Amino acid sequence: MNAPVFLASLLFVAHQTLSGADVRLPQTVSPRHYDVRLFPILEKGNFSILGQVSIDLECSEDTNRIVLHSADIVVDPQSVQVIERSDKFLQVEGIEYDTKLEFLIVHLNPKVKLTAGSNYTLSMRFVGNLTDQMRGFYRSVYTEDGTERYMASSQMQPTDARRALPCFDEPNLKATFTVTLGRHSDMISLSNMPLIDTTPMIGMENFFWDHFQPSVPMSTYLLAFAVANYAQVPSVKTKGKWNFNIYARSSAYNQTRYASDIGPRILSFFEDYFNISFPLPKQDMIAVPEFALGAMENWGLITYREKFLLYDETVSSFDHKELVIKVIAHELSHQWFGNLVTMEWWTDLWLNEGFASYAEHIGADHVEPDFKFLEQIVTFALHQAMNLDALESSHPVSVVVHHPSEIAEIFDVISYQKGAAIIRMLASFIGENNFKKALFNFLDKRQYGNAVQDDLWNAFDNQAKVDHIILPVNVKTIMDTWTLKMGFPVVTIRRDYQSRNVSISQERFLLHKSEKATDDPTVYLWWIPLTYTTDYKTIGSTWLADSQPSKNLTLESEIGMNDWIIFNVDETGYYRVNYDAHNWKLIGQQLMTNHSAISVINRAQIMDDSLNLARVGLVDYETAFNLTEYLKFEGEVLPWESTFAALTYIDSMMWQKPGYDLLKKHFRNILSPIFSSLGFHQNTEDSPLTNKLRLLISKWACYYGNEECIRQAIELYRQWMADPEDPTIVPIDVNSVVVSTAIREGGEREWNFAFDRYKKSNVASEKDTLLNALTSTREHDVLKRLLEMALNSTSGIRQQDGPDVDMILMTYLIESNFFGCQQVTRQKETR
Known about the structure:
six-stranded mixed sheet; 22 helices; disordered N terminus; protease; disulfide bond; metal-binding; cell membrane
């Protein structure tokens, strides 16, 4: 599942209110194979699923009942059969629904028992609901050539396979699946495996059954179905033994070219990276009009929200192109880490999502090296994770999940971004080649099975022994401090400039510590891999232990009194660094005289660390803001991203305060030279990251009142309004800034034009940009109207954009002074 919209996963299980500890299925029987037949009826007034399932079971403990999952499904009790392998029918006493636990219980006659070591088959017919709730097997509606059309697609993760068919809906209960789907003649159907045969439905003219190959063993949450009137992009055959196919609405067919190019290349790359061939004969990817998540890694049939798969070079920005690359790479990496080897239970969700969030940058970097994804992981993963992990309300990466209602809570920045950051840290201190060899051993040993995090640590410990890697303790001991504890440390560096010794200590970094906080300083300590440099030619390393006696460490060094030292080289470690005042001053002098002497990642780290350390009073703001002065010479996007991410909090706190004009003036002065250099219009020789920087600079220049920025944005928008069919008037990569600024500075006329373009657009990424821009208006009546439309399913704003509804509502209430303040509005404008 994809990180950029992980909050949408709350939709899937927020309805569940399970309580108590006994929510897991009893381990008396387990599935070995499912034979599934589903017919989704896509007609108004009769949206339903006609289904039949037959499950081969293995009994491990004597029992006279079978317990499996089922939700929003009505089973025909007369159809329920339990058969021994000898074709002996066992007497079924009846069925029972436990709606709170979402269990279906099949009771056998009290005189009949399933016996341990024996095999049985459970079969039944049922009717399900083909709802529009974007979970289970559900329906989507879209308009094609002026005609309203319906399609059926699926989203099973985490616990919604039970809404499509009765099943054993836990990740460790893997089985093989043979799927048959019913469809109309003008539609196609897709599932995890390739189609092998089509037969007519008896008594149903123009309807057919599509029969698919049996699957490999997999978890129920990876099951996938789609029935739609869709177009297929010509299949890509690679050097592997698999085909690569993309499906989309006919009118969006031309937006699939980029994904069709990079998808097979990324999949091939991961085969080499993991040293394990992709095990399926095909990989399909489909763009779904209504999809609650960003994407879902279903084995062999990955489903995407349209904006994360489709790309139109005439209207889609560079930012959207980056998203398409990363989301595709994220889902394809899951085919190994998550699908081939799956977490035992949701407690170890981070193994799936943390690794995929790390690997997406590696796969993306392979196909687009000029985008420097391996650098961008610092701002996208590490810094994002720290923002949440610095709160007392954070949680460990590995958090015990007692029942399904808790699962949605861990689809968050900690599982995804912190997971990625600590895996990157592990790869750094153990070495990239050793890292890849350990991953191969882990995947090869546990393929088609399940794992817990200790299985991964054991693989790394074994590899460390083979390759004679010297570590202070074993990998499990090190990594447990990062996965079983929430939060992270700030490492404090104090230099004795006479003796040249360096004193190092650690403590938990918190943005705010409540008066009732009970943090034990002996508990919140970590095994920290320390790296340091003075000139990037000499790089040293050591370890700071998690034990109280070793909380402080002294290094003897040969560093000159006037030489700076930087810890956490290229920020591979998951921690902040604070220095004594003089070392901060030496770093600032280096940045002002020749900032390129410090790596771009460490420049980003310095901005992020200093501004956040100032936020909690560990560094004075004068030091932090003096460091930002060098940015007027900075031509790389990473340090700017770090600065403005950290600045958002300061901006929101100072807004409407006496010093706010000084803050605006400070950054207007810093931004002015680079905005004058970059402007709104790109040059043909500009690199991709220059275009990314242009968007960031223009956004903040306009926000902080750069008159030329605002003037140009309004003029470009005026020209576009005069010729709305010309997409070249507003440069693609700054379109969001131009439209947002013009709407914020304009009135109802400017807003109406953007909303009209939103309704007419056939490109999901363009619609996303316009919808976000529409919330920038300062017209209260217009915001109120937008809110009403967002809550109206017939207005053209899709249900999947629900998270934006919350932002619109909050903006309206605050701008109308409902709460007596306007702080959230400022945070919205700087997001």
